[in-house]
Amino acid sequence: MSEIDVAATPAQAEKPQAGLGLAALTAIVVGSMIGSGIFALPSQMAGSAAPGPLLIGWAITGVGMLTLAFVFQTLAQRKPDVDGGVYGYAKAGFGNYIGFTSAFGYWASAWMGNVAYLVLLFATLGTFFPAFEGGATPPAIIGASILLWVVHFMTLRGVQTAAFVNTVVTIAKVVPILTFIAIAAVGFKAGLFSADFWGKATEIDGEPLGDTMHQVKNMMLVTVWVFIGIEGAAVYSKRAAKRSDVGRATVFGFVGVLALLLLVNFLSFGLMAQAKLADLPDPSMAGLMKQQVGSWGATFISVGLIVSLLGALIAWVMLCAEIMQVPALDHVMPAFLGKENAHHSPAGALWLTNGCIQAMLIWTLFNESTYLSLVLLATSLILLPYLWSAAYQVLLAVRGETYQSGQGRTKDLIVGAIALVYAVWLVYAGGVEYLLTGALFYFLGTVLFVWARREKKLPVFTSAEWAIFAVVTVAAGYAVWQIYTGDLSVG
Fold first, then answer.
1. pLDDT tens string 138-178
2. Which residues contact 101 (CB under 8 A, 6 or more apart)?
3. Facing residues of 203 across strands?
4. Which of 34, 54, 107, 132 is buried most, with the most CB atoms less than 10 Å from its CB?
5. Integer distance in angstroms from the first to the last C-alpha of the chain?
6. What are phi and psi of 259, to 5 degrees?
7. Alpha helices, DSSP H, located in 269-367
8. How many CB atoms are closer than 10 A to CB 156?
9. Residues 43, 280 contacting (CB under 8 angstroms)
10. Partner residues linked to 207 by β-bridges
11. Contact indicator for 30, 257 with CB cutoff of 8 Å
C-alpha cells in the first residue's frame, strides 16, 4: 500500500459537519490549560520575582505564547487537510519519524500528567477525608483508579459526550477563580503592591531575589508549564465541525486563560506582603481567600481545585487518545490505536493510555519520589511538538506554500520566527537532562513506529530518518551511561 496525501480544498474544509463546535473546542483549550497551576500561582510567583520583574516576564511570555497561538490558528487555516495538530504539522513538515516523535512525546507527557492530576486531586480531597491525605495512600490510589475508569468508560461513550461534560466542568472550575479575582480586587491595597516594586529589599527564606533579569528568568521558568494545553483544539482538528473554529478556539482560550493568570498573579501582591505570600502552602489561593473572607473561602477554593483537576483530567484523557489515533490512521502508529468503537471513540488508544495511567498509579504506592521525577521529565517532552509546529509555519512561509501569487507572507514569517525562537528557548530552559531523557523515551517508543510500518509493509525509515534515528540512539545511549554513573537521575 502506498501513502497518498489527499488535500482538501478550503471550501471542503469549511463545509459544516457533525463535530465539535467553537464552544466545545474553546473549552478543551481552557480545560487542558487550567489544572492546578493557577491555584498555586500566587506563592510560586512571589517566591520568584517582585511585581516589576513579573510585568517584564509576563510580557515576554505573553508575546511568545501568543505567537504560538497564532501559529496554530494560521496552520489550521492554511493546512485544513492536516489532522492531529502538533503531530500532523510535524509530520507534514519534517516526515513520518519526526511526526511520530511529536505524537509519542506528547502522549507520554500527557498520560503521566494525568497521573499527577489524579494524585493531587486525592491529596486535595485529603483535607476533607484523612484517608486520602498525600494522594498516594492505598485508599487514595483505589479512589483514583475508580475515577480513572469512570472517565474512561464515559469517553468510550463518545467524544461528543466527553466534550460536553468537559465544557460543563470547565465553566464550573472558572467560577471559583473569578470569585477570588472579585474578592481580591475589593481587598487590593495599592501601597502593598508597590512597596518593593522591583524586589530590591525583599528576601525569601533569607535569600535576596536578585537583580531584575535574574528575577525575570526565575519567573519565566515557572510560566513554562502554565500554558501547556494551548494546542488542545489543534489536536482535535479532525473532529471540528468547522476547521476555522480550531484557530479561533486556540486564540480565545489563550487570551481568556492569560487574563485569569495575570489577574490572579498581580492582585495577590496587593493582599499580602511578598515574603508571607511566598510562604503560603499550596494551593496558595486558598490561603489568600482565608485571609480575606475566613475559612469558608479556603474550603471554596479547595473544592474549586478538585473540580479543576477533574476537568483537566477529562480534557487530557481525550487529548491522549486523539494524539495516538490520528498517527495510527497514517501508519505511523500501530493500526489498533486507530480503531473506533460504535460511538466513534478511539477505543484502542484509550485502553492503552489508561492502562499506562493505572500501572503508574500502582507504582506510586511503592515509589512516589520516582514517579514525581518521571512526571516532571516527561512533561518536558511536550515542548518539542511546539517547536516543530512553529518551524512548520516558518517553512511554509519561506517556501510560499499555500500562498497565492502576490499574497503577503511577511507577517506569518515573522510570527512563526518569534514562536520558533520562543519554543527553542523553552526547550533550552528545560535543561540538557530533559533532552537526554527525552531521547531515551523516543528510542524506546520507536518500537511502535517500526511495528506500524512493518504491519503495512512500508519502508521504516528514509535516509534522512535513519540519520535522525542514529542521533536519537546516540543520545539515548549517552543518557543510559549518565544514569549508570549517577550523573543523570530519572527517579
1. 999 999 999 999 989 888 887 677 778 778 888 888 899 99
2. 90, 384, 442, 445, 472
3. 208
4. 107
5. 43
6. -60, -45
7. 274-278, 284-293, 295-329, 347-364
8. 20
9. yes
10. 204
11. yes
- Return d(Cα 476, Cα 489) in angstroms, integer: 14
What pLDDT does residue 387 have? 92
**Residue 461, C-beta contacts closer than 8 angstroms, at least 6 positions apart:** 97, 469
pLDDT at 201 over 70: yes
Length of the chain as a residue count: 491
C-alpha cell of residue 138? 492505598
Give 126-142 pLDDT, tens digit per residue.
888 889 887 888 999 99
Residue type, 340: E
DSSP string, 400-447: TTTPPTT---HHHHHHHHHHHHHHHHHHHHH-HHHHHHHHHHHHHHHH
457 CB-side CA count, 13 A: 2
- Of 21, 32, 2, 62, the closest CA to residue 259 belongs to 62
Q: How far is CA 146 from CA 15, 142, 153, in A?
A: 40, 6, 11
Which three cell numbers mark 73? 490558528
d(CA 355, CA 126): 25
